[in-house]
Design brief:
- The chain has 283 residues and is mostly helical.
- The chain has 2 domains: 3-216, Rhomboid-like fold (Up-down Bundle); 229-283, no CATH class.
- The protein has helices spanning 3-11, 19-39, 54-58, 64-67, 77-98, 100-123, 133-146, 162-179, 182-223, 276-282; strands at 151-154, 158-161, 247-248, 257-258.
- The strands form 2 sheets. The chain has a two-stranded antiparallel ribbon with strand order 1-2.
- Strand 1 and strand 2 form a beta hairpin.
- The chain is elongated.
């Protein structure tokens, strides 16, 4: 039984249906509350009580381990609405494709990986904090892997297949991994760990299949490579002049090839006749 199958059989009864909608609803409520408090110049920010801060967790605020996915995006209302719309579309599509249990496991692995990375970063003196960018990012990458030809309109105008946006995201991750600090690299790995758990084996099989295909094509090209014709007199070959019509002489012994200039002007190659003395010795 595979690792994911074991997780499904053990934790399937804990799965929460439509978890994407629940997460978005929590973020909308917090975003609306913050917006209401800001317009009234009221004090307090409930979001700060929900973010994942390892120091606060060790201080007794255990709820932060499960509430940080509900922290809304820190952006304008229109961009927050676009983020929620896309997250809902991607998440519900994955849940329909995989089933509720597997989709819950996908999100849980991502959350646990980022919690672990945040605590490790805090332990080595970094102020890195897990946010929801990893949640949106991995759901987007998983959706693009399963539905690569889905067309999304960038800025509501430019149509582009989502696989190209995913490729751009992977390039960005790779660049940040190369230039980033050790903590940044750890957080990047944590952000894509659930994707690698779900799709890593598939990508590895694709790499091996591509290698086998390229190896087979190379061997096939070598085996079917056109034999070069070469004139027996002057040495001119079809590799030198592909348009030249080479011919073989029927009066010559064996496969004797000649260029148009020497096909009628050459000394015929005759088969060697057996020496009678050799026959006598054999008798």
């Amino acid at each position: 039984m595979s690792f994911l199958k074991r997780l499904e059989s053990r934790f399937g009864h804990w799965a929460i249906p439509n978890i994407t909608g629940i997460i978005i609803a929590g973020q909308v409520i917090l975003y609306s509350r913050n917006f209401f408090l800001a317009t009234r110049n009221a004090g307090g920010d409930p979001v700060t009580q929900l973010t994942l801060l390892p120091s606060k967790v060790f201080g007794g605020e255990i709820w932060r381990l499960v509430t940080f996915p509900f922290v809304p995006p820190d952006t304008s209302l229109i961009w927050a609405a676009i983020t929620w719309m896309l997250f809902y579309m991607f998440g519900t599509s994955l849940e329909r494709e995989w089933g509720t249990v597997r989709y819950n496991i996908f999100l849980a692995i991502g959350c646990l990986a980022n919690v672990a990375a945040s605590f490790i970063a805090w332990g080595i003196g970094s102020n890195a904090v897990a946010d929801n960018n990893f949640l949106y990012g991995t759901v987007f990458l998983a959706f693009a892997q399963i539905f690569p030809n889905f067309v999304i309109h960038v800025f509501f105008v430019l149509p582009i297949q989502i696989k190209w946006l995913a490729l751009l995201a992977w390039i960005t991750y790779a660049y940040q991994f190369l230039i980033g600090s050790g903590t940044a690299r750890m957080l990047i790995v944590a952000s894509v760990l659930n994707y690698l758990v779900f799709f890593g084996r598939e990508h590895w099989r694709e790499v091996k299949a591509r290698h086998r295909r390229q190896s087979y094509q190379t061997k096939t090209r070598q085996a079917t490579k056109k034999v070069a014709h070469a004139c027996r007199v002057c040495g001119l070959s079809s590799n030198d002049t592909p348009r030249t019509l080479f011919r073989y002489c029927s009066k010559c012994s064996g496969q004797s090839c000649y260029c148009p200039e020497h096909i009628h002007d050459h000394e015929h190659v005759l088969a060697e006749e057996p020496d009678p003395s050799d026959s006598a010795l054999a008798d």
